[in-house]
Specification:
Blueprint: E1 3-5, H1 33-36, H2 41-46, E2 54-60, H3 63-78, E3 82-90, H4 92-100, E4 106-110, H5 111-118, H6 128-143, E5 145-147, E6 157-161, H7 175-178, H8 185-192, E7 199-201, H9 212-219, E8 228-230, H10 233-242, E9 248-252, H11 257-261, E10 264-265, E11 278-283, H12 284-289, H13 293-301, H14 306-317, H15 323-333
Parallel strand pairs: 1-3, 2-3, 7-8, 7-9
Antiparallel strand pairs: 4-11, 5-11, 6-9, 6-10
Helix pairs in contact: 3-15, 5-6, 14-15
Length: 337
């Protein structure tokens, strides 16, 4: 099927959605989507016919999100749908607004983000499945947004330190920095050696309730304002590894930069960060009209664990491969296309 590319979001006169599958079972491990689903002409004829079906897929503007968006596009194409590529839209708020404004039809969102940002839940459940159920229930109830069963991957925020950060300067071993292995240890470091308590953070992490403000409130410490450096998310990893600007940084647990740079992740010993399992979200009317989307993407989601997303994102971030090529290779490896 033909794929369209929209470089910018535009108002779409009619947003058509995916059409009916023949049969209710998913593709299954190793089975191709095309062999198990028919989202093309047969469904069109059964549901009105004569109208070209297309689905607009969005994503946020970082590597993992663009990979997930490309996987979604490939799955829909394999099932016989025409698609429009609106991946890389922008920030969390921008993509969510695009979904609710019907400028895109679906994108992958994270359960922790749904709870803390979109639904403003101050104390989300600790259990990942309980968190998903609560987010899915509330977002459907309040906003008519459906959340499909999430992937097991957990793209939680993490505070990282460089593996070699303790041998800087005159190759002196810094016992104070070496002793910081948990987030609660940062409080002691800030109090005793504030000059070493330097942190690089991404723009959203610097402002979000589940970012630096909430982290500081929860753990009862505050980084000196002059020690907080706001950088593009993708550059935080290198800044932490170099250790010139900051000793610590906010990173994503599933980023390919984590293993590539051998970053050390501090333990969230008081459990501030919730689970951030990616789930394909869409308006309720889409899923109500085309329930076949549910088994199609749940089959895909269950294959996406943390190590898989780290590997795929490393291919984009480290190896500089295009997200669409990485997504296609993975779909082929899985026997889905």
């Amino acid at each position: 099927m033909r794929r369209l590319r929209e470089s910018k979001l535009a108002t779409v006169a009619v947003l058509a959605v995916v059409v009916a599958a023949c049969g209710g079972e998913g593709a299954g491990q190793g089975g191709s989507i095309g062999a198990s689903y028919d989202l093309g002409d047969k469904g069109l004829s059964e549901r009105g016919g004569g109208v070209t079906t297309r689905l607009i897929v969005g994503s946020k503007d970082f590597a993992e999100q663009e990979i997930l968006g490309q996987i979604t596009l490939l799955a829909l194409e394999a099932a016989g749908s025409e698609v429009v590529d609106s991946t890389g839209v922008g920030s969390t708020e921008a993509v969510r607004e695009a979904l609710t404004a019907e400028e895109i039809d679906m994108y992958w969102e994270y359960t922790g983000t749904g709870a803390l940002i979109h639904l403003a839940q101050g104390e989300p459940p600790d259990d990942p499945q309980a968190l998903y159920r609560e987010v899915a229930r509330l977002d459907l109830q309040r906003n008519d947004i459906e959340w499909l069963q999430p992937a097991p991957a957990d793209n939680t925020y993490v505070i990282a330190a460089a593996s070699a950060v303790y041998q800087r300067g005159n190759n002196a071993y810094d016992e104070e920095l070496a002793a910081v292995t948990r987030l609660s240890d940062l409080g002691r470091l800030i109090e005793e050696s504030p000059d070493k308590a330097t942190v690089c953070v991404g723009p959203e992490f610097n402002e979000r309730a589940d970012g630096l403000p909430g982290l500081e409130e929860h753990y009862g410490f505050g980084f000196p304002q002059a020690n907080v450096f706001v950088l593009p998310d993708s550059t935080v990893y290198g800044a932490v590894d170099e250790g010139q600007k900051c000793n610590f940084g906010s990173v994503f647990a599933t980023s390919g930069y984590v293993p590539e740079l051998n970053l050390r992740l501090l333990e969230d010993d008081e459990g501030f960060f919730p689970a951030y399992n990616p789930s394909l979200t869409m308006r309720a009317e889409t899923l109500e009209s085309y329930p076949e989307l549910k088994p199609l993407f749940e089959d895909i989601a269950e294959r996406l664990d943390t190590e898989t997303l780290r590997r795929l994102s490393a291919e984009v971030l480290v190896d500089q491969r295009p997200a669409d090529a990485v997504a296609q290779e993975w779909m082929e490896e899985q026997g889905l296309i």
